[in-house]
Design goal:
heterodimer; A: 437 residues; mainly alpha; two-stranded antiparallel sheet; B: mainly alpha; 0% strand; elongated
Amino acid sequence: MIRRALTSLRDTVRGVWEDIKSSTDASLLGAARFLGLLYGPIDRRLQIDEAFRKALQYRLPSHVGWRHALGGITYLLFLILVVTGVMLAIFYRPSVEEAYPSVQHIVSSRPFGWLVRDVHHWSANLIVLALLAHMARVFFEAAYKPPRETNWLIGLLLLAVVLAFGATGYLLPWDQWSYWTVTEVMNATAQFPIVGRALADRLMGDVIVSGATLSRFFALHVIVLPWVAFVLLGYHFTLVRRRGIAPPVSDAQEKPRWRKSGLYRPEDEEEEGVPFFPNQLLRSFTVGTLTFAVVITLAVLYPRVFPPPADPAAVPDRLVSTWVPIDVSMALIRFSGPWGLMLFWVLGFSLVLIPLIDRGPDRRLRQRPLAAALGIAFFAGYALLLISGRVLGSFEPSAEIGSRQEEMGAVPARAPIEIPSLDPDGGTPVSEEGAEQ
Amino acid sequence: MRAFAWSVALSLCTLALIGASAPMAAQQVAVEQNDETYGCIICHADKRRAFQQGVHAERGIRCETCHGGDPGAIEIAPAHRGRFLGSPTKFEILNLCSECHSDPNEMRQFGLSADQLAEFRTSRHGQLLLGARDTNAPTCTDCHDAHLIRPVQDARSKSHPLNIPTMCAKCHQDEALMATYGEPTDQYERYRAGAHGKAVFEDRNFAAPTCIGCHGSHAALPPSVRQVTDVCGRCHVAIAQSFYAGPHAQAAGDPERFAGCLACHSNHGTQRVPYEQLDEFCATCHEPESNAYALAQAMEEEVLRARQELHLAEEALYEMAESGKPTDDEEFRMQAAITAFRQLAHAQHSVDLEEAEEYGRQVRSNTGVIRATAEAHAEERWEHGLLLIPVWFLALSAVAFARFKLREVQQEARRSDG
């Protein structure tokens, strides 16, 4: 009887396995089918199989090369940041007393906590570079021209989101460098005309960077910004798919159907280009693996240093930059003062407006000198400033912060009393001692 | 009912009036001083202002209490009649002040001692003024001011700890004046540069001595060489104890041979002996071949070794903290090591090599644990690097697989095209 039961069980298992093997064109997806995700009740409602088939049949134009992987690298780094960020959030505690010790705990007591933390740190650095490289590729290939100008704007919003992520995340370790760098940034924000003071006060929630600031930055970093980023990313990817990939620079002529519907249908290009699966997928796999390896290598070889815990009563002699945009701003301020930073901001902002100005059909760099000049100034400038910022390494806290510290420690000075002169000619006012004599 | 209401209102008014009149009683003294029938201030208005800010005006002491004369008069001649002193001489001042300040019954209420004059007679200043009739020597008013006399706790007072060194220096830095007594004039400069001066002026630490801390205030006199150890030992209790336990206490009895604390630390400059020069200091008295000198060298070696250990432990601690390892335990051990290192100073003053070795061991046992922890931690961090081997092995294999597969796919596509 047992033997009969065993035989029937074996037959059943073999049957299922045969089913799985024979039921789909991609046999690895048998498990999905078994669960009803393919050809099952769930698939009948959501049509997963069809979507999957479409994705596999998707063909990319033949000019798509390695340089198109930059956007993918950015997205991969974003995913790494999400995963490591969630892992960090499990042990991180956003309070003045516990923030620093909790990061110490993550790094020194959790298994592979050091790796998670430094991978998060390095991904946050590399994502800025990858994003800017992606942006440069799009810019110089004029991929922002109609009908893709919306996606250019979404991309710039994503850049702003990434920068906001970095700026809020920078404070969270609550150490001297992060505390005082954020203080500098908040001071600079307050200098902004009209809205600056109010904005800085709202962000800080206090008159100085304090526990209230830490809570706000934490909420922004782990709740607000991720949702914004996901929504924008969804829109970005949808638009990439709908509008298709920009034609090569040499082939200025946009295919007529783009103009007509603005929609991309993979059926239209049945016989053109390279299939996404497996050719492009293998390339993405290669690039992704290398990105992973590079991030881990950087995290292992150059872990972020722990400065002393944040102390609002002591300004450190030097602040070390540990994030790419801070390196760049540091170099800018050193070489050209705050006005240089402002000008660079204006230059960066002019890139937002580029698709509004540069609308012609020309895609070659030579035929659009203004855009080329702007782009080269911005991207090459960024690279140069990044290198010089890395060489500088650290900066002194600004004089304003130092003097404010002195003010806090010193007895408030009384303004000298001026006694108005009784002289009818209105001579200079005499001092108190002079009047006594 | 109405009568009751009226009585309540009336009693309230009365209470209010009593309340209003209360501060007037407190102002009585001031009103009296400003009384225009008070004759002295007609001419001496400038003195009045200074005097009123001082502590004596608060106690109802007035011009005539010290100067005599008739404050009721409004002309010069009648005002300066009677037991009138005018500007008292230095000797008269001593008598005037001591009239009250030598009376314990008067001084008790202020918590002041009544021995200032008695002390002053013993001081060098008193000897000069009263013995040699030398009017260069100061009297009460030279240090406490004549009219603007404030309590010593008042930071504006001339005899507040922060002001004492500059006040003494006014005369003691005067080269011409000091030359007549054969005194040096560099005390102030050396004091300010020394440990005590820094504590007072830079850290506002009033537990540190000013001039009067060692010399006495009214009984100001340089302590004799024999007394120096006790003067310093008043604050440096444990060090003095060790010093008396050691062989140098005997020698300190003979001022010709050995000047006690001053022999190594100087007086006003309060210098530290650098750890590297311990044997050099000893060599000023002891022969280089003597046993004592050998002992000094052994002591110096012990101290330097302990200090080197402290430096290494500090570096190890810094490295650990920088890599994010919580170092609470190690910092506690560091404090223990620093305490033991400080205690080495005791062994230096009693010249007890065994004791020094014991403290040295205590330093090393603590720093040793810190360094071992740091080393283990550094090794752990080095091992993190080993992760790169499997990571790159897997990554490169994956890339190789992808390239191989891609080429295969492309070749297949070309074949099917062809």
